[in-house]
Design brief:
This protein is of the alpha+beta class. It has 16 helices and seven strands.
């Protein structure tokens, strides 16, 4: 095809990079990223026969005519044995970490990462990384610089390790882009801190106190109907907070007693099916539907979906005397209750939407109580000490 200004304007993004080549100038074309960003490019082979791709400039920043002239100029350099893409990469070696951060976010993360991931990266960059390293040339950053920053965050090991992980990823891309030599990642040998993941599970009595508090605070108007429904659904489905807050009515299938989540953490595996038990069905059926709003958990002033559940959650947990309980602990408690009910770990992993058994394995130790009860029953039977057993398998008597 012949690239023209109207044709380029009409090009739409897809799920991956799309390339459109000009029939008049071989190797010259336009790349359209999933984010919608369009750029003029030149594809060629260098003197060693390696296929190379040179970005000439973004559509809108340079014109089609300017891009053609730049492509022709670079083809002339290639004819004399030069490698324009390599020259450009070498010229970038003097860039600062701030420059690298912008390029990493715009060229690598944009269109690939979820909005929540992009927001987390920006937060880590602005709060921890850029204040220390923004103006430093990446070729001058040493392992001790990364280690010093990591060590300075030792009181919050989770944040420290996320900072280290993001720096490693950025330096890996710098290697790939030719801005750092191979095996030149200064964060590669820095050892992450040990993270002790806290797990808190609600007991049956604590579940009861939680629900009584939700009921009472909702009646008093301390928390709203949508806020109360969100907390109840989190505890009854094991869903993640984002999955409940962004739940739309089109995803609710009460006829088949399920939710079909199109937005969830592992959405590359397709829609996630969440079975709705009778208690959850009742909660969903009682939530008021707001005309013109597609979301189940309606936000402030009836617009969009609820963004932040932290304030109502703090009121509920304080009233229930559960000040150490986090929202995510409701998901852990759902899994704990499933284990106690004798449900297998693979099934629990399916309920929680885990992409691997490794994520579900953290609940394996909770299965020991029913195993111990079963062992006690067998032991008593073998030894002849047969205590009465209740219908639910509990041993009666000493």
């Amino acid at each position: 095809m012949k690239l023209t200004k109207p044709l380029i304007a009409s090009l739409s993004p897809g799920n991956r990079d799309r390339f459109y080549w000009d029939e008049l100038l071989p190797g010259f074309g336009v790349r359209v990223k999933p984010s919608g960003i369009k750029a003029f490019i030149l594809q060629y082979r260098n003197a060693s026969g390696m296929s190379r791709r040179l970005t000439l400039g973004r559509v809108g920043i340079i014109t089609l005519d300017q891009a053609r002239k730049e492509a022709l100029r670079n083809k002339g350099l290639i004819g004399f044995g030069q490698d324009p893409a390599q020259n450009k990469a070498e010229a970038r070696i003097g860039e600062t970490l701030g420059d690298l951060a912008n390029r990493y976010m715009n060229e690598h993360c944009e269109g690939r990462c979820k909005p929540s991931t992009l927001a987390a990266h920006r937060w880590l960059l602005e709060k921890f990384i850029l204040p220390h390293l923004r103006t430093q040339k990446i070729k001058d950053i040493k392992q001790e610089d990364v280690a010093r920053l990591h060590q300075s965050l030792r009181t919050t090991p989770y944040n420290a390790n996320r900072v280290l992980g993001l720096l490693r990823a950025m330096f890996n891309k710098a290697e790939e882009w030719g801005a750092l030599p191979k095996h030149g990642n200064p964060g590669e040998s820095v050892k992450p801190f040990t993270e002790r993941k806290r797990q808190r599970f609600l007991s049956p009595d604590e579940f009861n106190r939680l629900y009584l508090s939700i009921d009472e605070l909702e009646k008093l108007g301390v928390i709203g109907v949508y806020q109360a429904a969100a907390i109840r659904l989190l505890s009854l489905t094991g869903c993640r907070l984002s999955e409940i807050l962004t739940l739309e009515w089109k995803d609710v299938d009460l006829g088949n007693q399920r939710l079909l989540l199109s937005r969830h953490k592992t959405d590359r595996r397709g829609a996630k099916m969440i079975p709705l038990n009778s208690a959850a069905q009742r909660i969903v059926s009682e939530i008021p539907v707001l005309a013109g709003n597609p979301f189940v958990i309606v936000g402030k002033d009836g617009r969009g979906h609820l963004i932040n559940l932290q304030k109502p959650w703090n009121r509920v947990r304080t009233h229930a005397g559960l000040s150490d309980l986090r929202i995510h602990d409701l998901r852990h408690s759902f899994a704990s209750a499933a284990v106690s009910a004798g449900i297998s770990l693979p099934i629990i992993g399916g309920l929680l939407g885990h992409s691997s058994m490794q994520s579900t394995a953290r609940y394996a130790h909770l299965a020991q109580d029913p195993v111990h009860r079963a062992s006690e029953l067998v032991g008593r039977a073998i030894s002849g000490k047969r205590n009465p057993v209740s219908s639910d398998g509990e041993i009666v008597g000493p």
